[in-house]
Amino acid sequence: MRILSGIQPSGKLHLGNYFGMMSRMIEYQKNHELFCFIVNLHALTSVFDPETLKQNTLAATADFLSLGLDPEKSYFWVQSDVTEVTELTWYLSNITPFGLLERCTSYKDKVDKGIPASHGLFSYPVLMAADILLFQADKVPVGKDQKQHLEMARDIAEKFNRVYGETFKIPEPDITRDSAVVPGLDGQKMSKSYDNTIEIFLPEKELKKKIMSIKTDSKTVEEPKNPDENVIHQIYKLFVDPDQAGIMAEQFRKGNYGYGQAKQELYKVVSERFAPLREKREKLFSNPSYLKDILQMGAKKARAIAADTLEKVREKVGVVY
Ligand code: ADP
Ligand code: TRP
């Protein structure tokens, strides 16, 4: 089975990205064909500083590699290095109904947040559909916020197959209940654009500060608390096994267990998970030429598959003569 997903280099990667997409991709790599890429063309819809985009791209590369992505075993590349995707986007654009894009809620959300209402932002889902269909992916691991984009990719694939004959596999979204929406410091969805993230590779001191700044209600230490209603427990649960999560939940319910104490526990498990990888991550990030070599190798492998699909598509739409 072919597993594929991408991530935007629009900021530093955080625990929402980790549980919604990255850790699951790395797990899939053990038994499946994995396609993982950094979607810098998508990030151009919101990042207008070239140096920032370059740095974020290399940072995301270092993050994935230090978390265990194996570039030999998998396909790991930067979107703009496989330009076939932009050609496919055009073919798909011409069978994508305007109304389908108009119904896209993430476009409206992004414009409300101040991202310029460009043509690129409006047609973002078509480029994403091209990403997926170009590689004939079976399954796409993402967080819940990407559900509508995935439905659009399926609609676009079905429409193309109807118009031009069977060409694309219809991809399945892969969203798990536990990590569908990881909450951020303020209880909203953790997101680079809400300034409420806990980045994966923060220095220890900053990590602690961030965790200590998680917003809670004003219940006293003595009062019983509902673990399902607080961000500390919701994030903690993702790091530990159900028994250990149950112990914290019970302490909250019984009372005499303060938020400060719970934050210390959370800090401990987050730090235990990522601290051992931090040195490796720093080493990788400080060696851009090594990272670029890895990405070039990935692009070469990915391009071979992309070219194959694109050749079939050109034939179908009639741009060969
Ligand atoms: P952001 O909202 O921070 O810009 P992206 O849109 O780049 O994140 O998301 C990259 C991947 O991480 C997507 O698969 C997305 O669904 C997932 N993801 C992002 N934030 C969360 C979250 N808070 N909970 C679960 N998954 C998330
Ligand atoms: N839209 C996705 C996000 O913001 C990123 C993305 C681009 C993607 N192309 C993709 C995800 C293809 C899965 C498959 O997170």
Give a short overview:
The chain is built from 14 helices and 5 strands.
Question: SSE layout and pairings?
Answer:
Layout: E1 2-7, H1 15-28, E2 33-38, H2 40-43, H3 50-67, E3 75-78, H4 84-93, H5 98-102, H6 105-112, H7 119-122, H8 124-134, E4 139-141, H9 147-164, E5 172-174, H10 204-212, H11 231-239, H12 242-254, H13 259-285, H14 288-317
Parallel strand pairs: 1-2, 2-3, 4-5
Helix pairs in contact: 3-13, 4-8, 4-14, 8-9, 10-13, 11-13
The structure holds adenosine-5'-diphosphate and tryptophan (TRP).
The structure class reads mainly alpha
Strand proportion, as a percent range, falls in: 5-15%
Radius of gyration: 21 Å
Query: What is the helix fraction of residues, given as a range?
Result: 55-70%
- Poorly predicted ranges: none
Q: Order of strands across the widest beta sheet?
A: 1-2-3
- The number of helical elements comes to 14
- Average pLDDT confidence is 96
By CATH, the superfamily of the largest domain comes out as HUPs
Q: How many individual β-strands?
A: 5
Descriptive overview:
There is one protein chain. 56% of the residues lie in helices and 7% in strands. With 321 residues, it is mainly alpha-helical. It folds into two domains: 211 residues, Rossmann fold (3-Layer(aba) Sandwich); 82 residues, Tyrosyl-Transfer RNA Synthetase (Orthogonal Bundle), CATH 1.10.240. The strands form two sheets. The protein has a three-stranded parallel sheet with strand order 1-2-3. Strands 4-5 form a two-stranded parallel ribbon. Helix 1 links the parallel strand 1 and strand 2. Helix 3 crosses helix 13. The longest helix is centred in the last third of the chain and has 30 residues. It is globular. The mean pLDDT is 96. Bound molecules: adenosine-5'-diphosphate and tryptophan (TRP).
